């Protein structure tokens, strides 16, 4: 993201408030520092747990796989429905926070 901001034309800085740029940079850095390590650990734990459940399920009650496949298909459909909505909501939160961060940055400088 920094490379794109550094190479942006001056018209980008004229049309985009500095608070929005600062908000995006601070949010991205916060996500890298705090959220990603926990998400990777949680993902690894969930993946190991899922594989263990599938192995046990295939040995004990293989008939459950008949229900398992449609549930996976429905879950994928819900995920595809949710992701665009979550992105739009995240964008709206950033737009709402931008004036506050811009005011804070101007106050400090």
From TrEMBL:
Q: Tell me the superkingdom of the source.
A: Eukaryota
Q: Which residues form the ABC transmembrane type-1 domain?
A: 1-109
Q: What is the lineage of its organism?
A: Eukaryota, Viridiplantae, Streptophyta, Embryophyta, Tracheophyta
Regions that span the bilayer: 47-78
Q: Which GO terms describe its cellular component?
A: membrane
Question: Does the keyword field hold Iron?
Answer: no
Q: What is this protein called?
A: ABC transporter C family member 3-like protein
- Tell me the keywords, alphabetical order: ATP-binding, Membrane, Nucleotide-binding, Transmembrane, Transmembrane helix, Transport
Q: Which PROSITE patterns match?
A: ABC_TM1F
| GO-annotated molecular function | ABC-type transporter activity; ATP binding
